[in-house]
Specification:
Largest sheet: 5 strands, parallel
CATH architecture of the largest domain: 2-Layer Sandwich
Number of domains: 3
Mean pLDDT: 83
CATH class of the largest domain: Alpha Beta
CATH topology of the largest domain: Heat Shock Protein 90
Distance between the termini: 83 Å
Structural class: alpha/beta
Radius of gyration: 43 Å
Low-confidence stretches: 47-52, 380-385
Order of helices and strands: EHHEHEHEHEHHEHEEHEEHHHEEE
Length: 431
């Protein structure tokens, strides 16, 4: 504390000699004597430097009414007293106890020191009238200079520490209020996003159902025409057109099915129908479904799946997971490449079925994007391919419904591995 930050003290006593004694102790050079500096250093660890010695700005009052008025004026000026030295007997006006009580009503933070040579009022009785107890102190008359100075220094330090604590507490309360307001805003935003997501999912589900019915008809009639069930088409160009209709409709139907599955997954409306399944026949059946795709892409399919434990899972959804992973691997593997499906148990007993390709690979950023809904790997090869970007996200959500995980690892130019992990508690090993 610098010399400009003087300790404000109110000294109240009806006897002029006592007020002069206060003045001699607190307002003269003795107040900044070496003895006081040593005392402050001993009490507070303050260095014995002239800039650290605190002067006292002392106001004097001879009666209780005058003291109360001085406290009121100091509050109005926003220069409150840190402490009040107060006599008890001050005839003919207010006594010290009543004066202290009225001062406390004006300022509940000021430290009051009762200075008296009489025992008319027990300190405990005074404390009940002038709470709080931790801001009420006592000195007997005649007081000692060093004792008075110690009180002044200690109570001034206490007053400033308490004020700093109150300010910190107010700052914390304001920050807490700001955090609560931010939390309310975030909660409202979260609820709005969830509402919008539900509305989007319901819209997608509704539109998907509306589109699938006519599309199935288009695909069905195109298939009838391709097979020339009711006679030849005639011009060869008609066959090409019908093939385009069929393949375009089939692709659009896959897109719609992906949207429908994704909207169901987002709305948590997918229910598993679990049963014991042998992974080997399941994989064989899925490989048959993608073999034509692999043939057109000139990609070799390798089944490296050995004998594995039965899985407690939903056959339809597990088939969908494997179909998405294999289709995705074939799509991103160039002509002459290889896609391999294999299985193994890890140290924890979990079953891992992995699909490894020798395709274009992905960066770390691409891996994150590939698992996001509608995410597409940003490459020239990927941009030429058709798709919704929902295959991997749907597979991820479906395997998570089984209590498992989907993990992707990849290197640019070296291919990608998509591994589905089934927890050991969903496996049944033959006795």
């Amino acid at each position: 504390m610098t010399s400009e930050e003087a300790t404000r003290i109110l000294a109240v006593d009806d006897e002029q000699p006592v007020r002069e004694a206060y003045r001699a102790v607190l307002c003269t050079a003795d107040a900044e004597s070496d003895e006081l500096a040593e005392t402050e250093a001993e009490l507070f660890g303050a260095p014995e430097s002239a800039t650290d010695k605190r002067p006292f700005d002392v106001t004097f009052a001879a009666q209780g009414e005058e003291a109360v008025a001085a406290v009121a004026a100091s509050i109005a000026e926003e220069r409150p007293f840190q402490l009040v030295f107060l006599d008890v007997r001050m005839p003919p006006g207010l006594d010290g106890v009543e004066t202290a009580r009225r001062i406390r009503q004006l300022d509940d933070q000021v430290n009051i020191v009762i200075v008296t040579g009489y025992s008319d009022n027990h300190p405990r009785d005074i404390a009940t009238q002038v709470p709080p107890f931790d801001k009420l102190f006592y000195i007997s008359k005649p007081f000692q200079a060093l004792e008075l100075q110690q009180f002044a220094l200690a109570l001034d330090t206490k007053w400033h520490a308490e004020r700093s604590l109150r300010r910190t507490n107010l700052d914390l309360q304001e920050r807490y209020a700001d955090l609560e307001a931010a939390h309310r805003d975030l909660t409202a935003a979260k609820n709005e996003v969830e509402r919008a997501t539900r509305a989007k999912s319901e819209f997608l589900a509704s539109m998907s159902h509306e589109l699938r019915t006519p599309l199935n008809a288009v695909i069905g009639f195109a298939e009838v025409m391709r097979s020339e069930t009711f006679g030849p088409l005639g011009d060869e160009r008609y066959r090409d057109y019908v093939d385009d209709i069929y393949h375009g409709g089939a692709h659009l139907l896959r897109v719609i099915n992906d949207l429908l599955d994704f909207s169901k997954a987002e709305a948590n409306k997918i229910e598993l129908r679990c049963e014991l399944l042998d992974p080997k026949p399941l994989v064989t059946s899925v490989l048959k479904l993608v073999r034509d795709q692999a043939h057109r892409a000139q990609v070799e399919l390798v089944d490296d799946l050995s004998v594995l434990p039965a899985i407690n899972g939903d056959e339809l959804r597990l088939r969908q997971i494997l179909l998405n992973l294999l289709s995705n691997a074939i799509k991103f593997t160039k002509s002459g490449g290889v896609v391999t499906i294999s299985g193994r148990r890890d140290a924890a007993g979990d079953l891992i079925i992995s699909v490894v390709d020798t395709g274009i690979g992905m960066t770390e950023k691409d891996l994150e994007r590939a698992l996001e809904p509608f995410g597409q790997v940003d490459s020239a090869h990927a941009r030429r391919l058709q798709g919704t970007g929902l295959g991997l996200p749907i597979a991820k959500r479906l395997i998570e419904l089984h209590g498992g995980t989907l993990r992707l690892t990849s290197r640019v130019g070296s291919g990608t591995e998509a591994a589905i992990h089934f927890p050991a508690n969903r496996l049944v090993t033959a006795a």
